[in-house]
Amino acid sequence: MTQLSNSLAAADLATSLHPYTDARALEETGPIIIARGEGIHVWDTAGNKYIEGLAGLWSVAVGFGETRLADAAHKQMSQLPYYHIFAAKAHEPSIRLAEKLVEITPEPLTRVFYTNSGSEANDTVVKLVWYMNNALGRPEKKKFLARNKGYHGITIASGSLTGLPNNHRDFDLPAIPVVHLTCPHFYRFGQEGETEAEFTARLLAELEAVIEREGAETIAAFIGEPLMGAGGVMVPPEGYWPGVEAICRKHDILLVSDEVINGFGRTGGRFGCETYGFTPDIMTVSKQITSSYMPLAAVLFTEEIYDAIADNSHKIGTFGHGYTASGHPVATAVALENLAILEERDLMGAANRLGPRLQEGLRQYADHPLVGEVRGAGLIAGIELVADKATRAPFAPIGRVGAQAAIFGHAEGLIFRAIGDTLALCPPLIVTEADIDQIVEKMGRALDRTAEWLAAQG
Ligand code: PMP
Question: TM spans, by residue (predicted)?
Answer without folding.
Answer: none
